[in-house]
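Q: Got a minute? One more chain.
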Amino acid sequence: MQLHAKPDERGKAVSLYILAMHGGAALGSLASGGVIHLIGVRPTLFVDGIIAVVLQVVVALFVAR
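A: Always. Here it is, folded:
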């Protein structure tokens, strides 16, 4: 990821990556925990998986452009 960024933007790229990976996990876990109480464990994990696949497709399409 850093190899494709301009030298003056490399720190920004890494900070956004770390925010997405670590910050997103904490918020996603909190949201999943709340949803588990509403619809149960299996449906929540299914929905989490669907969201992950959709986000992967969106990112892949964005990067391909």
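A: The chain has a mean pLDDT of 86.
Q: Perfect, thanks.
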